[in-house]
Design goal:
alpha+beta, Beta Polymerase, domain 2, five-stranded mixed β-sheet, 58% helix, binds ligand 0O2
Length: 209
């Protein structure tokens, strides 16, 4: 009996993985269609690259436990919106909003939530545009909806976020070092934001020529 229960849970996780994986593929396909259309019409690509990931079972369990929620596949499906994640790295800040608008206006995707950490950066300096979309996936036995968390950022914002993440993990527990690191990272974020702005301004100038 216990073995059957374990098999059921395992199968539910596989089903979840398939659903979220399919939702990611649908979003990536749509993003590539946008990018190719831009390239055809304006001879440039607004998207530098796309990354995606499915949260690992350990990470799903850890997040459910932290939130004090039941650790079951149903609970993961009902309570977590970041099991499927797509990261879109853009060339310029304006491209981020163009991509976000295109996804928002897409009639098949339902916008659930937006967090604009570019207009309102996090206190540590984190900048990125986050949106959660409900994506319909058509299976042989009907339609299923899966939320996908989409992070859209420039190459410079991505550079900062990747290194901040690494430094955060590597940080020794020394409070003095931690405090100076926090300050320096914030400074770097401001410098990077200035560079993004300059690049955007140069691009606009060139396009006006
Ligand atoms: P991983 O490994 O990337 O998945 P929520 O409960 O999910 O609604 P949350 O988690 O605060 O609230 O959502 P938010 O603010 O939209 O951030 C979710 C994700 O954004 C994080 O996922 C990170 O990927 C990224 N992120 C947010 N803040 C920071 C930051 O300060 N630095 C960096 N480097 N990334 C950040 P996870 O689940 O933390 O990790």
């Amino acid at each position: 009996h216990k073995e059957e229960q374990i098999q059921d849970v395992f199968y539910s996780f596989l089903e979840l993985e398939h659903l979220y994986d399919s939702a990611i593929e649908l979003v990536k396909t749509q993003l590539n269609i946008f990018d190719n259309e831009f390239s055809m019409r304006f001879q440039r690509n607004p998207i530098h690259n796309i990354e995606s990931r499915i949260k690992t079972p350990q990470s799903i369990v850890g997040k459910l436990q932290r939130k004090g929620m039941p650790v079951t596949p149903e609970s993961a499906r009902n309570n977590l919106t970041d099991i499927a994640g797509v990261r879109v790295i853009c060339c310029y800040i304006d491209d981020i909003y163009a991509i976000a608008d295109l996804l928002t206006d897409h009639s098949a995707f339902q916008l659930r939530k937006i967090k604009d950490y570019i207009k309102n950066p996090k206190p540590n300096g984190y900048r990125s545009f986050h949106m959660i979309l409900d994506v319909p996936v058509y299976m042989s036995n009907g339609k299923e909806i899966a939320p996908v968390e989409i992070q859209i950022r420039t190459i410079a914002m991505d550079f900062w976020a990747s290194l901040e993440h690494q430094l955060h993990y590597k940080s020794t527990g020394d409070p003095k070092i931690a405090a100076s690191l926090t300050g320096e990272l914030k400074e770097c974020s401001e410098t990077i934001s200035g560079i993004d702005q300059k690049m955007q301004d140069m691009f606009k100038k060139i396009n006006l020529l």
